[in-house]
Amino acid sequence: MKLTRTQMMWLVFCINVGLPIYLSGTMNVTKQDAWFSVILAGAAGFIVLALAVRNAKYFPGQTFIEFTQEVLGKWVGRFWVLPYLAFWMISLGNILRSVVDFIIMALFKETPLTAVVIVLFVVVAFAVATNGINTIARCAELMGPLIVLMFLCIYILNLSNLDFTFLLPVAADTSPLNMARGTFTMMEMYGDSYLLVMVFGFLNKQKGVTPKIYVGFTLAVGLMVLTTTFILLTFGPGLAAKMQYPLYELVRYIEVGEFLQRIEVVMIALWVCSAFIKLGFYLFCLSYGTAQWLGIKKWKLLIIPISLLAIWAAGLTTSLLTTRALLLRYIDPVILPLLYFILPVILWIMILLHRRKNQKVQTGVVPTIPKASMGWKWSGVTLLILMLSMYYYMYIRYFKV
Amino acid sequence: MRWMLHKLLPLLVLSCLLTGCWDRVELNDRAVILGWGMDKEQDGQYLASAMIFIPQSNNNNSDGDLASLSKHFEVFTGKGRSIMEAANQIQPKLSRTIFAGNRRMIVIGESMARDGLSNILDEYSRNKDVRLRTDMIIVEKGTALSLLKMVYPLEDSPATGALKIHENTGGLADKAMVYFLQAINDPGKSPTLPQLSLSSKEQSQKQEMQMTGIAVFDNNLKMKYKLNVDETHSFFWLTKKINKFSITVPIKEKGVINVDMHRLSSKIAVKLVDGKPQFEVKLKGDVMIVENETALHLDQMEDFRKVKEALNLKCKTDMEAFLHHIQQEKTDVVGFNGYIHRKYPRTWRKMEPTWGPDFAHASIKVQANMTLRQIGLTGTSIENEEDPD
């Protein structure tokens, strides 16, 4: 599996262009200044992305699982990645559910949720099983430009509906506290960037990849800022905050003359494509990471149990909005900063120390340690841990909210 | 065999999984709703009426026979103590599943509007089939059912007819619902909906409909009062929803002049004097004289100026009458609150809770500055040329 730099750029773009459902939560708090929270959230996401690059770039050919073990030692490294794997598992279930909720809302009314979940995930698992991250990255390279084109079309076709008074007054009604709260609601979306530590090692050439990654990310955030602005300008902050899928409503609202209308189906198709890339990316990172963690050579074997877990998790949550409430209350304020900011910073410092130490011994060449094989019985233990973490999550979900 | 297993099997499995035909409803099984009416009956029950498209081939009706045209549609009704109950009474009468995705028009009877719209608006914004681009109108002193049942000669259905009437008189008809929802979500601004009235033509059973103004709602979404046609023009002018209409200008002791006004624009400025808002409204537009019933010589500077002054006065008094009316009723339909909010956001926070009564006392000055662009093809009125006056 090798990734080119352009593929990397579009991969970063596709996983960050995101599911625009998070907007209404932000708009509730920050009203007409929501676009600024998106910029702030993008800046926070940029830090996460930069940390991911800083963490991974010294270890070509190695994934997160391998280089943490090298830097922190075998056992600390193992425990270091465990919360990440558990959290990614939860996120995978959540993303799957939100995608399926949207598909059901837009297209299918009487189809049971499980059917849509299974059908979608069979395709994702099939894609990951064929060629791993390569399939996903090539899909991203193909779909990314189309998604950009779709967004541009939405903007252009909506130009006639804009009312610029909706953006005023700028930064007058939102207190800094509210701005921070609104930003926090968005930030979860850009936490995904940290998953890059899993695939950075697959790059065929590292030189010059960092600017491309940043370009991909900035493009995604820029589109999101524009989208937020357009939604505000079209519906006004009061109405937009009440919409569950404001972007979808925006596309439905497009009507040019009497003939160009109901183009939301095109948008749904591309949207599902971007969701497909995101799901595939998560699934790959999880199955590859877990396999490396256990020392299993055939990582593809883990696709099936992880898919089953994800499908099960997606069916558990009752609705997207209640899950969002939970995320906002428990997971976002604690787990996100811990996993995507504090721990990466510590890891970065450790990496720098490690490199300084190693450079004294041998010049620049990073030694690789042999992988420990933990055998099959450990895979059961891992899955148990993953399941327990999800049980804990569901426990919070049902009894504390 | 191996080839079959490796290539063909996934293909077959995926082709089964990817089709997504679970929810398909054939067009033959859909009852397409084109217009929807809500009324409140005398006995307190709600009456929902759905105008449903009757599919048939168009070939036989190409002669435009009214009776056959009207057969394209049928109105079904349901009655109930709550709105949902009434709406749910319609489906059992239909052999096909209701599909509301093409609903462009929601008609509301006046009794329903006076009772309050908060109950019905929820469905109209929650139902995922329904689009935001929907027109909403109130039937003045009548029922929605009677509007949907009437025969409108110009269009294929009365719902389309009402929509186009609205479009012709007030600009963006299919945005009525969005404007309404936006006004609800803007504290301080009063929502409005256009109003139509039905009148019987003499000597026949046929009815006519006519745009008669704007219904103004209070914050509980109950209809409070209506603005007449002149006030509606002023309202649209001030909110930039219309850019042309015609008025008749009286000229002192001389008669009247009819003019077309177009390229209308308005500007509202606000300033705070001792913590009280003072608004200044500036009106501008191009004017074309279409009929001169006076003996004024429009090609002469003095008379020309007289006309212009009379015109400015007329625009100003009309606008002031409209503003006076809405101030008396304490309903800010124009959105003057937004102007304070945008310019003095901090002061606005203190003013917001009492904006309704405060608006009634706000001072609003109107200035009209119209430009006479064309006086038509003749200078002086032809028939009045020999008039000694």
From TrEMBL, chain A:
The keyword Transport applies. Coiled coil: none annotated. Pfam families: Spore_permease. GO terms for biological process: spore germination. One of its GO terms (cellular component) is membrane. The chain crosses the membrane at residues 7-23, 35-53, 84-107, 113-134, 146-172, 184-203, 215-240, 268-289, 301-322, 334-353, 374-394. Keywords: Germination, Membrane, Transmembrane, Transmembrane helix, Transport. It is a multi-pass membrane protein. It is found in: Membrane. Belongs to the amino acid-polyamine-organocation (APC) superfamily. Spore germination protein (SGP) (TC 2.A.3.9) family. This is GerAB/ArcD/ProY family transporter. It comes from Paenibacillus agri.
From TrEMBL, chain B:
It comes from the Bacteria. Keywords: Germination, Lipoprotein, Membrane, Palmitate, Signal. GO terms for biological process: spore germination. One of its GO terms (cellular component) is membrane. It is a lipid-anchor. Residues 23-197 form the Spore germination protein N-terminal domain. Residues 212-376 form the Spore germination GerAC-like C-terminal domain. Its main location: membrane. It is found in: Membrane. Pfam families: Spore_GerAC, Spore_GerAC_N. Belongs to the GerABKC lipoprotein family. This is Ger(X)C family spore germination protein. It comes from Paenibacillus agri.
